[in-house]
């Protein structure tokens, strides 16, 4: 019996130390705040934050990044991107974030063509700051 009691004490200590290590390391493994990372982040919250910032600050220099987000696998990212683009340009170019992929692809091609043809103007960074 004495050996069994000692074994239980050791097992409990190991479990307690393991739990303490998990609790101590968890903050280090947490994703960065949504305000960090931007458009290139793997964290959808960071992308959404960047999209909302671009639309909210009327930052037309971010139009290319917003157009890229229209191809996202995440429907929320696509929805916020088209809302921001519509806010910045006044147009949706028939883009529907919930349409089938082939329809979204056609709409993204329209956005890219319009941007490349100069029909969608991106303001200089100073102008974007003046508008906010």
Keywords summarizing the entry:
single chain; 132 residues; mainly alpha; 2 domains; 6 helices; disordered C terminus
What does this structure look like?
It contains six helices and no strands. It is mainly alpha-helical. It folds into two domains: 1-30; 38-131. The longest helix is centred in the first third of the chain and has 28 residues, at 2-29.
In total, the number of domains comes to 2
Number of strands: 0
Order of helices and strands: HHHHHH
* Arithmetic mean of pLDDT: 78
* Beta-strand percentage range: under 5%
End-to-end Cα distance, whole Å, is 75 Å
- What helical percentage do the residues reach? 55-70%
Instruction: Please identify the oligomeric state.
Output: single chain
Tell me about the largest β-sheet: none
Q: Would you spell out the secondary-structure blueprint of this structure?
A:
Layout: H1 2-29, H2 44-56, H3 63-69, H4 75-89, H5 101-116, H6 125-131
Helix pairs in contact: 2-4, 3-4, 3-5
